[in-house]
Amino acid sequence: MGRKFKWNLHPVRSGSPDLHRTAAAFLGMETRRRWTERKGGALRGTEIRLDKKPDEALYGEKSLLSSTRLLGGRFRRRKWVQMASDKIRTRFAPSPTGFLHIGGARTALFNWLYTRRHGGTFVLRVEDTDQVRSTEESTQAILDAMTWLGLNWDEGPYFQAERVALHREMVQKLINEGKAYYCTCSPAELEAKRKKALAEGRKPKYDGTCRNRGLSRSPDAVVRFLCPEVGVTVMHDLIKGNISFNNEELDDLIIERADGYPTYNFAVVVDDAQMGITHVIRGDDHVNNTPKQIRIYEALGYEVPLFGHVPMILGSDKARLSKRHGATSVMAYQEMGYLPEALVNYLVRLGWSHGDQEIFTMEELVREFSLEAVGKSAAVFNPEKLLWLNQQYIMAYPEEKLVEAMHPFWERRGFDASNRRFISKVTADLRTRAKTLVEMADASAFYFQQEVEYDPEAAAKFLTTEYGGHLEAVVERISGIGDYTKDGLETFLRALAEERGTKLKWIAQALRVALTGKTVSPGIDEVMVTLGKERVIERIHRAIAHIGAGA
């Protein structure tokens, strides 16, 4: 019980699997079975062996057959998916028409984790055949975002636009075999057909006007794929389970535009097949594309990969995540001061879970991730949860990495972060108080300023003659403190408060405003240690002068 098996499907003699054999493939029957169809039937003398091998997982998941087709009440033979020992190959294939957004990053992450867990190959392919919208800037932004998130790829990046000649060759192959045809219906004609179908209560789809016209290539001709009009296409989704599509609902899709460039549904099939992609893990907005793509795989004689469609990400109002819900670009979160590990951790939890655990190292994610634990329902993006998670990562981040991550934020503000020992102390003072690196950079300004700027309200309350005596007492004695450490300064300030008959907090607040310009900062003893004795004395003298000028 509980053992995983790897199944091999062997067509032993010619023929096609019927409903019972296909069900056996989906259900994972354990024994070798023989079916012999009745004499004279369409299917005769076919034997299917279902072999199991203990302790070997099928690509890490118990799923056998990606699809089959039922045409006119009979199952039509399709190429068996080789289940024996193929290495997993996944891909992430973004379009460079903008920045890498949150949804795309999660899809890349799920592919990456699944591949790394099973020791496969992760391919990066840029789908840049949209000649109008694709830009080099967007391509670089996607590569930068992937690198920042730590999602390294094993092959690529490949560029789809460089493979157009291959796509055209495959289009011509289908035309030559009578599986595709030229169509010259104009946009106006197609729109009229669409309106007529809607008016008659029919689903708008191409009516096959050019199917049997035997047209040749012309400047305004597109190429359409010849789809079967009867039967059912069944997809076994690794996340959603079995999904059936009536072929009559699907039309003859365009596979090549008039400009000679392939459409998405065709190019993606050719590229995935040629690159040996075994698992297509993508957003569930592609579910309706899948039956079209399955038919193209079969028409070209390609093996059909396994599909897994992850649920979409919604905003707090349960609408699809968009800019109105906040930032959607991955690199926008870098600019806002989020750590890549925090964003990765948050993205993987949008749709996947492992018990009640919230925080994972990358090593834990690789070890624990599985498609079986990916939910079928849409996930809701919660910025507050991401902010909390980022704070946890900032507090736990290794000192060297946190200092390195802070450098760009200090540089943008013109702060001199060249003194490594000093900025390490600054980081240590602030890391438990900041939720983002931007917050930390803003809060650290007083450490780098030659002369701090006093908050007007803070100065009005604490830089007064009432508190001036406390500051004078501190500056008179601080130069003689031998133990200039956090503990030593705390002992010194407590003794001074007792001597002056006041509470420590009043001395501390006056010092805080004198040293930082604000009433809120890290512990005053920490600030004094980081600034150093000389700068502390300078700032106290300046605060005393400020009090005298306003007296």
Please characterize this protein's 3D structure:
The chain is built from 21 helices and 17 strands. It has helices at 19-27, 102-117, 136-149, 164-176, 187-199, 264-274, 290-300, 330-335, 340-348, 362-368, 383-396, 399-412, 420-430, 437-443, 445-448, 456-462, 465-478, 486-500, 504-516, 524-531, 533-550; strands at residues 5-11, 33-34, 47-54, 67-71, 74-76, 89-92, 121-126, 155-159, 180-183, 222-225, 232-237, 241-246, 254-256, 279-283, 306-310, 313-314, 379-380. It has a four-stranded antiparallel sheet with strand order 5-4-11-12, with helices on both faces. Strands 1-3-2 form a three-stranded antiparallel sheet, with no helix packed on it. Helix 12 (399-412) crosses helix 14. The longest helix is centred in the last third of the chain and has 18 residues, at 533-550.
